[in-house]
Amino acid sequence: MEKNTLSLRNLGRSFGPTRAVDGVSIDIAAGEFVGVIGRSGAGKSTLLRLINRLIDPTDGSVHFGDREITSLNGRALRQWRRECAMIFQQFNLIERLDVLTNVLVGRISSHGFASSMAMHFSDAERALAIRALDRLDLAPQALQRAGTLSGGQQQRVAIARALLQEPRILLADEPIASLDPGNAMRVMEALRTINTEDGITVIVNLHTLDTARAYCDRIIAMRCGVVMFDGSARNLTDDVVRDIYGGAGLAEFNESITSTSIRSAVPA
Questions:
Q1: Alpha carbons 41 and 4: distance in angstroms, whole number
Q2: pLDDT of 11-39, one tens digit each?
Q3: For position 19, which CATH number holds?
Q4: Disulfide: which of 24, 73, 117, 244 matches 11 by Cβ 3.0-4.6 Å?
Q5: Which residues span the membrane (predicted)?
């Protein structure tokens, strides 16, 4: 197995009688940009949480290179969560703190307990945070309270915070679900830039099919916890989507952002 390949083997998670993820087996190579699509309840969020070990599988395993992630605990598990950063739909910023401090929170897992509680950061870490904000066009807002930013700006702060973990994999769970098309475009462009410039593997859950086609090299479509399609964006045609999800599939995928809006936001 390649050193930085993420491998899921017969991965499953049950919640009572419900199989949220059911027998998923996929390999994701280093540097891929993967979009995971599906209706609400398809298992997308559960899949990302299994990869990050925010929840444990009922069965199956996750491997990264020669490491079995599902068997990690303690310090080794904390190290994995640094390497596999997570971005959420809700931003999860500390709104009363300034933007720079929110970004520096991404370094806490690298500190001891006392230093973390006091939120003591080095000049080098502060410089790293400023560079991350500058990449996301947010350096002028560094000393502004996070709660005063727009939703799109807050999501980009969350991306900058994740970058300070120096991850190998970036997981994004519905990062644009609550954003207007313009801000959705900026967030997706930021993720694509990080993927291409840094070589970081990006796995992003999306509701909108057009967004996945526009930004993702590879698309995984899920239904009822099962992978129904795994291939290139160009091979996920409207006919394939209808075969998987039925006649209403396209309409449901575009319920958050219309096809016209997202296409106007995505540069040609």
A1: 29
A2: 999 999 999 999 999 999 999 999 999 88
A3: 3.40.50.300
A4: 24
A5: none
